[in-house]
Amino acid sequence: MMSSLNQQEFLRAAMAEFGRLQGLDRPATRDEMCERLGVTRPTFDKWMLDSANGRKMSNNVWCHVREVLAHETLKKKVKKSIA
After folding, report:
1. Could you give the CA distance from residue 25 to residue 23 in angstroms, rounded to a whole number?
2. What is the C-alpha end-to-end distance of the chain, expressed in Å?
3. CA distance 7 to 20
4. Residue 42: in which H helix or E strand, if any?
5. From CA 83, how far away is CA 30, in angstroms rounded?
6. Neighbours of 10 (CB within 10 A)
7. Does the pTM exceed 0.85?
8. How many Å apart are CA 79 and CA 13, to the nearest integer?
9. 7-82 has which fold?
10. How many Å apart are CA 49 and CA 83, to the nearest integer?
11. CB-based contacts of 25: which residues, under 8 Å, 6+ apart?
12. pLDDT per residue rounded down to tens, the chain (83 residues)
């Protein structure tokens, strides 16, 4: 993910990437992202609001999302190499 993205753009890009890594023909849904990130839907929804109305994600959350995507990428590579 590009660090120049704002929070909402970052999460939308993460949803698209997660969906791709899962073999979906679409971005992951908010519920799918919540389940994978271990957060509640209301929290995720607040992160997705514009900066004036939403909740700012901590640096730990930004890192956690990146780590989840890195982990899913690695899982896909390993699965591909085994097949």
Report:
1. 7
2. 28
3. 20
4. helix 41-48
5. 30
6. 20
7. yes
8. 23
9. 434 Repressor (Amino-terminal Domain) (1.10.260)
10. 41
11. 19
12. 456 889 999 999 999 999 999 999 999 999 999 999 999 999 999 999 977 788 999 999 999 999 999 999 999 999 888 87
R_g of the chain computed on alpha carbons: 13
CB 10 within 8 A of CB 56: no
Q: Are 59 and 67 in contact, with CB atoms under 8 Å apart?
A: no
Token pair belonging to 20 = 């791709």
Q: Identify the H or E element spanning 10.
A: helix 7-21
Residue count of the chain, please give it.
83
Take residue 79 and report the two structure tokens written for it. Answer: 């699965």
